[in-house]
Amino acid sequence: MLEARDSFVGFRKHGASGIEISDLFPHIARQADRLCVLPGRFQGILFQSKGDAVHYIGNPEDVCQSTQRQVVDEVRRLNGFLGEEQNDPDIATRIAQYEIAFCMQASVPELTDFSGETRETLDLYGVKEPGEGSFASNCLLATVLALLGIDHHRLTTTFQGLDVRLTGIAGKVV
């Protein structure tokens, strides 16, 4: 019969994500929050540059916002029972995602509508037509998100095939 041994190397949690990394890799540990594998609660939302900013952002056909709110509340309640029973962090993540999705259905269309911006503001950013999906529109969106205090750690856009960071690590527009 084989006996299992303790690891000869320690593992510690690093970064805001709390990912466990071996003490053998201190450089990687310092980069913990830049690694691609993060718990669900740290995953972001992809904003489309054209059309609806977020896929499936509208309420389902013939479902008003108050009915949608009731559905989200009931799903949260049922998932809460399951979460208490199983103590699974993915359930808490799922509950938070439903809540975020509902809040986005209520706010994203207005948030991404630049038709109320003055011509002067649009010209300062180089936006030719509001919502055109250009680099300029994405810079304006980053500014709007920052000014509204919306929680965002890293906003990027694709420009000429490259991912360009619009916000720094602290969420400030660069």
Summarize the helices and strands and which ones pair or pack.
Elements: E1 11-14, E2 19-22, H1 26-30, H2 65-86, H3 89-111, H4 119-125, H5 135-147, E3 156-159, E4 162-165
Antiparallel strand pairs: 1-2, 3-4
Question: Would you kindly provide a written description of the structure presented here, covering whatever features stand out?
Answer:
This protein is mostly helical and 174 residues long. It has 3 domains: 11-38, no CATH class; 39-108, no CATH class; 113-174, no CATH class. The protein is 40% helix and 9% strand. It has helices at residues 26-30, 65-86, 89-111, 119-125, 135-147, and strands at 11-14, 19-22, 156-159, 162-165. The strands form 2 sheets. A two-stranded antiparallel sheet has the order 1-2. It has a two-stranded antiparallel ribbon with strand order 3-4.
What would a concise description of this structure say?
This protein is mainly alpha-helical and 174 residues long.
Throw out a few tags for this protein.
174 residues; two-stranded antiparallel ribbon; 5 helices; mainly alpha; flat; 3 domains; 40% helix; two-stranded antiparallel sheet
Q: Quick one: how many beta strands?
A: 4
Strand line-up of the largest beta sheet: 1-2
Please write the string of helix (H) and strand (E) elements.
EEHHHHHEE
Question: Mind summarizing the main beta sheet?
Answer: 2 strands, antiparallel
Portion in strands = 5-15%
